[in-house]
Write a structure and sequence with these properties.
Layout (H helix, E strand, L loop, with lengths): L10 H5 L9 H6 L5 H8 L1 H12 L10 E2 L7 E2 L4 E2 L1 H14 L3 E6 L5 E5 H17 L7 E5 L4 H13 L2 E4 L6 H11 L3 E5 L1 E4 L2 E4 L1 H9 L7 E5 L13 E3 H4 L12 E2 L3 E7 L7 E6 L1 H13 L9 E4 L6 H13 L3 E5 L10 H9 L3 E4 L1 H10 L2 H4 L8 E4 L6 H11 L6 E3 L34 E4 L11 E6 L9 E2 L3 H9 L6 E9 L5 E6 L3 E4 L2 E4 H9 L4 E11 L3 E10 L1 H10 L2 H15 L8 E4 L13 H8 L15 H10 L1
Parallel strand pairs: 4-17, 6-7, 6-8, 7-14, 8-11, 11-12, 16-17, 16-18, 18-19, 19-20, 29-30
Antiparallel strand pairs: 1-2, 3-13, 4-5, 9-10, 14-15, 15-23, 21-22, 22-24, 24-25, 26-27, 28-29
The chain binds 5'-O-[(S)-butoxy(hydroxy)phosphoryl]adenosine.
Length: about 650
């Protein structure tokens, strides 16, 4: 057995990865989806998706059009059909006699639990929909949701969908500043939040950030709906703020879901791009639900009667939208929702939860797997994990050794592992093994799903032959694709469709192996991937230069054994600040202050791991910062080719500063 170490593999190592694990025979025999799905989809892609849309969803008006790409790059799927997302996720399961099935096993971080059946969920979502309506929310509006990972987050999302309003969920770890920008961009008139949530054993306040965001001004917010989670003291503004307990809990549990057009916006979700301003990725209803529901069936092999499904993502990220709220519930799944961190109160909390609820399908991120590896296999070893029958990974390339550890230690060398590639923009899984079909290779997402077309292109836009690397593109529209960037159609065109005309450029590097299987190699743009979360180098640079002591900043993602990448910043201080630091020995304070400043501007997840104060930054003659050279320094290598630098001595100064 080769050594098991954490960290991102080099391309060289990946090329030598030859292990492969065919599906166990009993798994393959009972799999929801078999190899014939590829043939079905290849015969007629559009009819394949139309079939999924009709089999997996209930439409109040059936569609006659499948795909209309005449407005490319904006697609319309099932355009003349009508449906309601909350009805599909909740009501119809109750109508089908499954009201007593558990929809959500909630486990709070302090150990409190709630069991929510589909019948309960229908009542809760209906009440919340009535309460939102009373607060003035109408079909076509936007509602911001800023909550910890509690059932009300899922309920609020579904309540928006029920009235035909789009939600914009803002991760609870984002700052008031980030929330403010997102509220304004989406023009949200209502914010749903909580007094606080539990994180590492502490009650962390959330509501004050909403107050601060609104106090900054310029938001159209009329009401704030506040869930009581921690019971901590919370300031409420008269006439604006209302408690969930006073409004939702007392509202009627009767509510007629509003049937909307298939292309009605379901949600906006902000993600970092290569420039400072986050992009509001817009998803609509029919296509998004079709593909999320299909992938839960096909990739996770979900059997709603017997499986207990757990996706560990927060609803603040796309994984929580597609694989906590919509995909599983549309399938009528029973799922676990856990509020807190994996190490509270102890580092075996996740494994305790798997054993307690008999989780059969686990979907998580490589960074979590590598952290568990670091903590040691003795911890999962304390618990009975034999219920697990399928393991999924998402968020960043999974290094083969983490994949092997996941399979052996968590999956008992028995459960298939599926490495699923997708993005906020794709809405649903695009490239992944099928667990009952594919002989899985550790570290490879392998094959575009049935009905999905992807390729790897060279610089000139030609498909690379097997055994070569290039840029990952999607060559045909897919049902869950984004319909654009909220309020900025030009940016949608420029970001995704201009690098290779007519093809969707994902921003990832990839390689095809000798079998034609796809291996993802990470981002090729100025986007970093920290613990599976996307952060933009320029966004953090803007945050740094917004601090009065900073003259200039450059940020890079440096390789990190646990988080995949870590944020490393290089800053040039203003002359006054340098003098002050020299005189008063405040150098360390400045770095601490800047780290906190980034947390305040964006959120704690964006805090640089290290900040280096430098005198100059490496720039080309045209003034572009050469991040490649800074990455060399941040990863402890000698700087590469410096011949295109305007001043070639700059790198020497920086490297000397590093070692000095
Ligand atoms: C970026 C998308 C998809 C939900 C979580 C992240 C990277 C995602 C994989 C994977 C290699 C992956 C890509 C992609 N990524 N999954 N299985 N293998 N890389 O969503 O924040 O929109 O980020 O995450 O770089 O472009 P996101």
């Amino acid at each position: 057995m080769s050594q098991e170490h954490a960290g991102t593999e080099s391309l060289e190592n990946l090329l030598h990865e030859t292990r492969s694990f065919p599906p166990p025979a009993d798994f393959a025999a009972r799999a929801n989806v078999t190899a014939s799905a590829y043939e079905d989809a290849a015969r007629d892609r559009e009819q394949f998706w139309a079939r999924q849309a009709r089999e997996l969803l209930s439409w109040s008006t059936d569609f006659t059009e499948v795909l209309d790409f005449s407005g490319a790059p904006v697609a319309r799927w099932f355009g003349d059909g009508r449906l309601n997302a909350a009805y599909n996720a909740v009501d119809r399961h109750v109508e089908a006699g499954h009201g007593e099935r558990v929809a959500i096993h909630f486990e709070g971080e302090p150990g409190d639990t709630r069991t929510i059946t589909y019948a309960d969920l229908k009542d809760e979502v209906s009440r919340a929909a009535n309460a939102l309506t009373d607060l003035g929310v109408r079909t076509g509006d936007r509602v911001a949701i800023y909550l910890p990972l509690v059932p009300e987050a899922v309920i609020a999302m579904l309540a928006c969908a029920r009235v035909g309003a789009a939600h914009s969920v803002v991760f609870g770890g984002f700052s008031a500043e980030a929330l403010h920008a997102r509220i304004i961009d989406a023009e949200a008139r209502v914010v749903v939040t909580a007094d606080g949530g539990y994180r590492r054993g502490k009650a962390m306040a959330l509501k004050p950030a909403v107050d601060e965001a609104i106090a900054k001004g310029g938001t159209p917010v009329e009401h704030v709906l506040v869930v009581r989670r921690t019971g901590q003291d919370t300031a409420m503004t008269d006439g604006r703020d209302v408690w969930w307990d006073d409004t939702v809990a007392t509202a009627s549990a009767e509510h007629e879901p509003v049937a909307v057009d298939a292309e009605n916006p379901l949600f906006i979700l902000y993600t970092s791009g290569t420039t400072g301003k986050p992009k509001g990725i817009m998803h609509t209803t029919g296509g998004f639900l079709t593909q999320t529901a299909y992938t839960v069936r096909a990739v996770f092999d979900l059997k709603p009667e017997t499986d207990v499904y757990w996706c560990t993502a927060d609803v603040g990220w796309v994984t929580g939208h597609s694989y906590v709220t919509y995909g599983p519930l549309v399938n009528g799944a029973t799922q676990v929702l856990y509020e807190g961190t994996p190490d509270t109160p102890d580092k075996d909390r996740w494994w305790q939860i798997v054993a307690k609820y008999g989780v059969t399908i686990l979907y998580t991120a490589p960074t979590a797997i590598r952290t568990a590896m670091k903590w040691g296999e003795e911890l999962p070893g304390r618990h009975d994990l034999s219920s697990l029958r399928l393991l999924g990974s998402v968020g960043e390339p999974i290094n083969p050794e983490a994949w092997m550890w996941y399979r052996r230690v968590i999956g008992g060398d028995r459960a298939p592992v599926v490495d699923t590639w997708w993005q906020t923009e794709t809405g649903a899984i695009m490239i992944s093994p099928l667990p009952g079909v594919t002989a899985a290779k550790p570290g490879s997402a392998q094959t575009p799903l049935p009905g999905i077309s992807a390729d790897v292109l060279d610089e000139a836009g030609q498909p690379v032959p097997d055994g070569h690397g290039g840029y990952l593109v999607l060559t045909e529209p897919w049902p869950a694709m984004l319909r654009g960037i909220w309020g900025d159609p030009q940016r949608y065109q420029d970001t995704y469709w201009s690098r290779f005309p007519g093809k969707y450029f994902a921003g990832d590097g990839a390689k095809k192996d000798e079998d034609g299987d796809v291996w993802l190699l990470g981002r090729v743009d100025d986007v970093m991937n920290i613990s599976g979360h996307r952060l933009s180098t320029t966004e953090i640079e803007s945050a740094l230069v917004s601090h009065p002591v900073v003259a200039e900043a450059a940020v890079v993602g440096a390789k990190d054994d646990t988080t995949g990448q870590a944020v490393v910043a290089f800053v040039i201080l203003r002359a006054e600040a340098v003098e002050r630091a020299d005189e008063e020995g405040e150098g360390a304070d400045v770095v601490a202050e800047l780290r906190n400043h980034v947390a305040k501007e964006i959120g704690p997840i964006a805090k640089p791991r290290s900040i280096l104060v430098v005198a100059e930054l490496p720039k080309t003659r045209s003034g572009k910062i050469m991040r490649r050279l800074l990455r060399d320094v941040a990863e402890g290598r000698p700087a590469g080719d410096v011949t295109t630098l305007a001043d070639s001595s700059v790198m020497e100064q920086i490297s000397t500063g590093m070692s000095g």
